[in-house]
Design a protein that fits this description.
The chain is an alpha/beta fold. The chain folds into two domains: 194 residues, Rossmann fold, CATH 3.40.50.2000; 157 residues, 3-Layer(aba) Sandwich (Rossmann fold), CATH 3.40.50.2000. The protein contains 13 helices and 13 strands.
C-alpha cells in the first residue's frame, strides 16, 4: 500500500514485527505506534502477515482504527526461502513508506532487515532502533544471529529487562559487531490501566488463568504435573488455559481428565484478555524464561494473585519480596508455591497491594512512551 507524505515535523517510524498476532513484542510495538501518534507517523511491516485468529484479526482492526498502515510479507518457511523473501519485501516496504526510523522487534524482524541491508540500498539513510524482547536471544539460529548483528552495527538498542540486556550484550560480543553508538538502555514495557479489578468477595471455586503460547519457554508442558501435585480447596479450582502451540494436545488431555477438585478448560487466544482478567483470582506463570513477563504485570494491575518463577525476565516483573515464586523449570517447586498460595487466601490482599504498587511504579505506559520518543530523537532522525 502507498503512504501519503507525513506532515512536516512528524518523522515516519516503520516497526518490523513478526506478525500481527499473539505475542508481547507485537503488542508493545502497537502500543508505541498508537501512543506516539501525535509525534510520529508510524506503520507496521508484519513479516509473517496477520494471524487468522481472534487476536490477529483484532489487532488488524485496531491498526485500521488508528490509521496505522500494515504491510505484510511472505508466509514461506524461513529456511525454505522465506528469509530472502522477507528481505525483498522489506526493501519494497521501505521504498513505499520511506521511514526516517526503522524499529525492529525480535529476531525474525532483525533477520529480515539484515537480509534487506545485504541486498538493497533502501533504508540506508534511516536511523535503526531495536527492542530486545527476550532474555534468551538468537538461541535457535546463533550463526545467523551473529551475521545479522554485523549488519546492524549502528543500532540504538532498548532492552525490556536487565536479563534481556545481558543476553544482548553476550550476543553482540560474540558477533564481533563492535561498539554501539550508545550503550543499550532498559525501557520497561508499559501497561495501560486495567479494564477492571478483581473482586475480593467472590464466592465459589478459585478461578485460575494461564495465558500464553503453549511452548517450552512458557512452561506449559509442566502444567499437568503441577496440577496433579496440588490439592484443590473444598470449593474447587477452575483453570482456564488460553493460548496455542505444540503442547496443545497434552493440555487438552489434561482438561479431559483433570485431577480431583479441578475443572480445566483449554481455549484459543483471546483478544479480550485484559477485559476478562478481573474475572479470575490467580494467574499461573510457570515460565522457563521471558523477556519481561508482561501478562504478570497486567495481572498485578488487575488485582490478581500471581504464582510465577525466578525465570530470567519474569523475576523482574514481580516485586523482590513477592511471595509464591518457584524455581524455573521445576514442577514440584511450582506446585508447592501454588499450594501455599491456595492455602493462604488471607494473605492475598497484602500481596495484591504490593504487586499493584510495584507495577504502577515500574511499568507505566506514559513513561515507556516518553522513553521511546527520546530514544528516537537520540537516534538522530529528528
Amino acid at each position: 500500500m502507498q503512504r501519503e507524505p507525513s506532515r512536516e515535523g512528524r518523522p515516519r517510524v516503520l516497526h518490523f514485527i513478526t506478525r500481527l498476532g499473539l505475542g508481547g513484542a507485537e503488542s508493545v510495538a502497537l502500543s508505541i505506534a498508537r501512543g506516539l501518534a501525535s509525534e510520529f507517523d508510524s506503520g507496521l511491516y508484519a513479516i509473517r502477515g496477520v494471524a487468522a485468529d481472534e487476536v490477529g484479526l483484532a489487532m488488524a482492526r485496531d491498526c485500521t482504527a488508528a490509521g496505522l498502515p500494515v504491510f505484510t510479507g511472505s508466509r514461506l518457511p524461513l529456511k525454505a526461502g522465506g528469509l530472502v523473501a522477507a528481505g525483498v519485501h522489506a526493501a519494497r516496504v521501505m521504498r513505499s513508506f520511506a521511514p526516517e526510523i526503522v524499529h525492529l522487534h525480535t529476531e525474525i524482524p532483525e533477520a529480515a532487515y539484515a537480509v534487506m541491508a545485504a541486498i538493497s540500498h533502501h533504508g540506508r539513510g534511516a536511523a535503526l532502533v531495536r527492542t530486545i524482547h527476550n532474555s534468551v536471544y538468537w538461541h535457535f539460529w546463533p550463526r545467523l544471529g551473529r551475521w545479522c548483528e554485523r549488519r546492524m552495527r549502528a543500532s540504538h538498542v532498548a532492552c525490556v529487562s536487565r536479563d534481556a540486556r545481558s543476553a544482548f550484550d553476550r550476543h553482540r560480543a560474540a558477533a564481533g559487531a563492535g561498539p554501539l553508538p550508545a550503550p543499550p538502555i532498559i525501557i520497561h514495557n508499559g501497561v495501560p490501566a486495567p479494564a477492571g479489578r478483581r473482586s475480593s468477595t467472590r464466592e465459589g471455586p478459585v478461578r485460575i488463568l494461564f495465558a500464553g503460547r503453549f511452548e517450552p519457554e512458557k512452561g506449559t508442558d509442566l502444567l499437568p504435573e503441577i496440577v496433579a501435585k496440588v490439592r484443590a480447596p473444598a470449593s474447587g479450582c477452575e483453570l482456564v488455559i488460553h493460548g496455542q502451540g505444540r503442547h496443545g494436545p497434552a493440555l487438552q488431555a489434561l482438561a479431559g481428565s483433570p485431577p480431583p477438585g479441578w475443572s480445566i478448560r483449554v481455549a484459543p487466544p483471546t483478544a479480550q484478555l485484559r477485559e476478562r482478567m478481573a474475572e479470575f483470582d490467580l494467574l499461573l506463570m510457570p515460565s522457563r524464561f521471558e523477556g519481561l513477563g508482561l501478562v504478570a504485570v497486567e495481572a498485578l494491575r488487575a488485582g490478581l494473585v500471581v504464582v510465577g518463577t525466578d525465570a530470567p525476565g519474569l523475576r523482574e516483573a514481580l516485586p523482590p519480596s513477592y511471595p509464591w515464586r518457584a524455581r524455573a523449570g521445576d514442577p514440584g517447586s511450582f506446585a508447592s508455591e501454588l499450594q501455599r498460595a491456595l492455602d493462604a487466601v488471607e494473605s492475598w490482599p497484602e500481596a495484591v497491594a504490593l504487586g499493584c504498587a510495584f507495577a504502577l511504579e515500574q511499568f507505566d505506559l506514559a513513561s515507556m512512551l516518553r522513553s521511546y520518543a527520546a530514544l528516537y530523537r537520540r537516534a538522530g532522525a529528528v
